[in-house]
Amino acid sequence: MRFLTAGESHGKCLTVIIDDVPANFEADIDFINDELAKRQQGYGRGGRMLIETDKVEVKSGIRFGKTLGSPICLEIKNKDFENWTERMSSSPTDKEFEKILVPRPGHADLAGAIKYNQQDIRNILERSSARETAARVAAGALAQNFLSKFNITGSTKVLSVGGAVGDDIKDKIDSAKEKGTTLGGVFEIRFKNLPVGLGSHTQWDRRLDGIIAQAVMSIPAVKAVEIGEGIKASEAYGLDFHDEIFYENDKYTRKTNNAGGLEGGMTNGEELVVRGYMKPIPTMKTPLKSVNIETKKEHDAHFERSDVSAVEACSIVALNMIAIVLFSEFQKRYGSDNFEQIKANYEK
Length: 348
Ligand SMILES: Cc1cc2nc3c(=O)[nH]c(=O)nc-3n(C[C@H](O)[C@H](O)[C@H](O)COP(=O)(O)O)c2cc1C
Prior knowledge:
With about 350 residues, the chain is an alpha+beta fold. The chain has a domain at about 100-335: Chorismate synthase, AroC fold, CATH 3.60.150. The chain contains 11 helices and 16 strands. A 4-stranded antiparallel sheet has the order 1-2-6-3, with helices on one face. A 4-stranded antiparallel sheet has the order 7-8-14-9. It binds flavin mononucleotide. Flavin mononucleotide binds near residues 107, 108, 221, 283 and 307.
């Protein structure tokens, strides 16, 4: 399974094309919409999330509720587009619109404007915006939907925001908002009931830990990924860290799961545990110093409506990105053409 997304933050819509989805599995569109709603939630989000109520429209690949094996195209409308029709028009225009000329440190603005030779940073930020992750969540929710038919389920948890935990998180976000600054944080994703042997030790690009890290790291603002107790592992003795193997009731078991469910780049039958570390949101009411790309003079960084913190939303994106990886690996192991064949291979 692979997917591509298209769409600008204030464009007409976001689109995702998901290829290589097996035929004959019941796609639960309500589940996809529920995941999209979860991505919009969380304390500290900006005003945009009040405008949008993300819902997918199925454009192709599903008939009478079941997948056809053909590419699935899903579309999510941007409600905010009605306020941007002229500014985001795809037709040529003689109208002048105010350009964004001051890049935000920590965003794609400066490198993007140089790389794509743009004089208006809007042409970069429209696509680098994390609004794109809504399309990923739609694809990931379909993957979760498929995995759930095999009792494989995922969950998310925010562990900390700006170092604060539990009830202190809201206060920390409130105080950041007051100061015109932002916060990142740490989230954890877990997947249960994975079969042994997804991924492989045989090639560098088949190791599942590497594939998962890439998927999670590709989410805007995620700057570190941890599998199991990977960070503590660097300071631990081997005798204290590795998960001893036992055999009970006709199966291999472990009493600990420091490896987070992966050994040798493969699932080992234990729960998959992945943590993501998100940096603070780069758009801030109290601006950092930057430079006007036209005049090259010092200027306050650009500000427009933005989240103060989005760790919870980010965790939903990560859950769905990991679901896509697991779905894809599941197909490699058990087949990819139709649901019945995959089920038979799985139950063998
Ligand atoms: C769910 C989510 C929401 C985000 N919301 C914002 C936002 O409102 N404003 C902002 O400047 N960055 C936001 N970001 C982060 C930026 O998209 C990201 O920092 C930027 O694209 C640069 O990429 P990098 O941080 O990976 O270098 C968000 C990220 C995620 C995952």
